Amino acid sequence: MNNLISIFILMAIVNNIVLAKFLGLCPFFGVSKKLSNALSMGLAVTLVMLIASISTTVIYNYLLVPFQVEFMRIVLYILVIASLVQMVELAIKRTNVALYNSLGIYLPLITTNCAVLGVALINSTENYTILQSTVSALGGGVGFSLVLIIMSGIREKLELSEAPESMEGLPIAFITAAMLALAFLGFRGMI
Amino acid sequence: MENKIDNCENCDNCVGKQNFGKEFWKEFVKGIILCNPVFVLALGLCPTLAVTGTIDNALGMGAGVIFVLLGSNIIISLMRNIIPDLVRIPVFIVVIATFVTILSLLFEAYIPLLYESLGIYLSLVVVNCIILGRAEVFASKNGMFLSIADALGIGLGFTIALIMISLFREILGTGALSIFGFQLFNIPGLSSNPLGFFVSPPGAFLVIGVLLAVFRWIGVLDNE
Amino acid sequence: MANFKNTKVYPIIILTIVVLVSVTVLIFLNTLTSPVVEAQKRKEINNQLQNIYSGMTDSELEDEIYYILKEDETIGYAFIAKGNGYGGEITIMVGLDKNLEVKDVSIMSHSETPGLGSRVTEESFTDDFKGLKIENIALNKNGGEIDAISGATISSEAVVSAVREEMKKKIKSIK
């Protein structure tokens, strides 16, 4: 149990996947302009990350390791994630139209989101069990949503303030992210 | 998926139709400046920040991306007439993933130190949207010859961006510069009290943000 | 041919062929590179052991412990310890002499902050371990005999506790 809690905190805060591991930066800068979008994106990523981590860990532990073909993991994982995203999209579309309307456009983006593949790869590098992978994916998703929401809150205010012309847009977003990452650096060594 | 590709295509003047049939050189040069994947298109950001703590990692990642880009562009441009539209993206992904696996097997066997320090970011080249982006907007519409030029140009542009960022981070962060174990120079006052901030994650965000702003200020890049 | 391209099975066939070709190429390449990787790892470990035990002639691996031999006589025991530092996992090769005192330790891999935590690899730190018995392996402030690197207490503590914990386990199973 202790171990599971520390995996969760490690993934969500200490080694935050966006600010310390630099995963999922494209949506981090692309979708963080409005708070409501950030919430939906965070939810979509957490959902896919969870399903993807469980299935890739099953594949890794019960297929790749016994047959000693761990090197095939990149090809397999990316195919699994791509098809999962398609399935999740279809399932949401059929069952809950309101949810689909708010999450729908983000789902296709997730296939090329390195956070999902990154967490899957971290899980197999660390030889996590299925339960540990689930917790680590949950931590990763929470960590991603957390910084996305914080960032979008800051950027909504940033829009209203005046930055030097050449700083506007992406450069100031990067510098804001630097401040955030600095704050998260304070959690280092906690575990 | 479609959305992402559209995002990757937002540099119209580089892949616009008037360029078709123009010579190798033009396709090569555009990737370095006009259409620099990192500074202009803001693509492939994850590795750009993660591996630029040292110049060795930057060079290794740059070489890896050039290799995968070249391989996938060649194969996809050769297969462009037989790939059905419906499974276009899965085929691209499998081709790219194959080259990434080849890359990581070669790195693990022949340069294990670099393989260790790049860690999962070497495998993550597969989701670097520069590569899928080039497959979709260039290699699937052009012949092999131009696709090679495109891969080399974009790959080199990416590598140059990585090197620039890592130069700042390594020099400021450690007070010295060394390539693959050979120390090039050492700044006396700085190397005993290095600004460790720059090799840490927040330093990466700051360096790339300031670089982007400076490029816009001196007019290399357009303002948004 | 043109008709075949319009059938529903055509995309599936192409995708299957691409996947099959990819798998074949990778399996072939893996059989070529895996012996090289194995040899690299053995060589790396052997180098580490040679650095610690200068006169060694051979080593035998049993239950994750390397029994160091010098002309058929066991002169020491070595093992690998892993700890969680500031930036990630730190891998340490620990060499014990016949009396189960530390002969030397060396850091095999780490991802600590360059210039701070990375100083755990320096001799000024690793030399502190030399000749210590297990009960003395702790940082100064915790009553041990090892000086923490200033500004990198977490990295230092990670190495020290990894060595101590692994040594505790290994001493029990050394024959």
Describe the protein in words.
- The complex is a heterotrimer of chains A (191), B (224) and C (175).
- Helix content of chain A is 73%, strand content 0%.
- Chain A has helices at 2-14, 25-30, 35-64, 73-95, 97-103, 107-110, 114-125, 130-158, 170-185.
- In chain A, helix 4 (73-95) packs across helix 7.
- The two termini of chain A are 15 Å apart.
- Chain C has two domains: 2-50; 58-173, no CATH class.
- In chain C, strands 1-2-3-4-5 form a five-stranded antiparallel sheet.
- Chain C is elongated.
- Chain C starts with a helix and ends with a helix.
- The model of chain C has no long low-confidence stretch (mean pLDDT 84).
- Chains in contact: A-B, A-C, B-C.
- At the A-B interface, helix 2, helix 4, helix 7 and helix 9 of A face helix 1, helix 4, helix 6 and helix 12 of B.
Task: State the main characteristics.
heterotrimer, B: 224 residues, mainly alpha, two-stranded antiparallel ribbon, 67% helix, C: alpha+beta, 5-stranded antiparallel sheet, 5 strands, 42% helix
Number of strands of chain B: 2
Strand arrangement, major sheet of chain C: 1-2-3-4-5
Strand order of the largest sheet of chain B: 1-2
Secondary-structure element pattern of chain C, one letter each:
HHEEEEEHH
Q: State the end-to-end CA separation of chain C.
A: 72 Å
Number of helix segments of chain B?
Answer: 12
Structural class given helices, strands, pairing of chain B? mainly alpha
Distance between the termini of chain B: 25 Å
Order of helices and strands of chain B: HHHHHHHHHHEEHH
The secondary-structure class of chain C comes to alpha+beta
What would the average pLDDT of chain C be, to the nearest integer?
Answer: 84
The number of domains of chain B: 1
